[in-house]
Amino acid sequence: MADVTTDSTRRLVSKKQTLDDAYAAPANFLEIDVVNPITHGVGNKRYTDYEVRMRIVVPPLPGKALKRQLPFRGDDGIYEEEFIEDRRKGLEVFINKIAGHPLAQNEKCLHMFIQEPVIDKNYVPGKIRNT
What SS3 class is residue 123? Predict the structure, then answer.
């Protein structure tokens, strides 16, 4: 019987990572490090313990333009319409990245920050349930 590989069972073709890929902005904001491997046991009865560290990388906020806040400038500084619009677009990109992250999108605090006109000072951390 011939060994026939179908599309559903064929291995994925992986792309070799370049230095540009390795040092580019992350595709998602969850970093997982597996460190401190410790092997136990004898012969065929061996296993390894690992320490797994996870962290969420938050994208940077757009700049606040500190130089624009200095006195005695010949322009409107932080009140220039072009600067305000660029900052608004940057903040919108930032909020969309955070709100689109699978680990953050169901957090109660994010929904409260985006949707509520007044922040509840008695807030209790939790998740939003999808109904």
Answer: coil
